[in-house]
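Entry:
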Amino acid sequence: MPLWRNVLARFRFRTIETEIFLSTTHVRPGDVVRGAIRIRNITHRLIYLSEVALVLKTQYEHLPNRSFAELKQIHLPIDTTFEPHEIIEYPFEFLLEDSFPSTLGSPILIEVLIGNQHGYVIEHAPDKSLQVPASDNVTKILSALESLGFHRFEVRNIKIQAGTERYPFIQRYSYLPEEEWSRRFDVLNVFFTETREHVQMHTAAEHRHESSSPIERRFTLDELDGKIEEIGTKIADELQKIRFNHSEEVSSSHE
């Protein structure tokens, strides 16, 4: 068994002691996460475990409260009886999908589901156990936005209506405009939906306490293979289409 560098959690489930190890806490969408869970019988008698699963969750805004969304569940092949003071390590690995949400909006919580003959108990590992950036394709678009003079000040997980989306929330990236864009917008909000073929960019702006109608731009993977400056030019063309009720006033002041 490899010597894992990061011990992420230690907690007690009645008669056992459990530790979670990861080879690294910094991963990217599309990466394979590898680690191990160590289970020790801390009693003087036999104990039986029927199931152990890792559940990755994160929080999102579900006004007036916050709710948890399950991102992924990994079941470990455990169905055994532990001798007194016996220690067993179970390796695991799982894939983070390309569209896996980043931890910019909220930390990822690792829950451990443990089952025995009496049922199930859920335990919690510490927050911020994984650090996940935005996907490579989204990161290119975000870099292009920054090259245009937009400064990101927050990322939030926002509830969306039930549909075909994988998760019940979407990540909203909010930017403060600089340079000439500050005369058009006070805040720029950007959302993304990803598939294997493209990235859909949804954009809306705020100006003088008014919100614009949203616009959308679909970036193909070929477009995202281009230079950041080229992506930025395409984004700038789209941002010119944003309109408010007072669009004429804004346009004239921009000129």
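Confidence is low (pLDDT under 50) at residues 1-5, 247-255.
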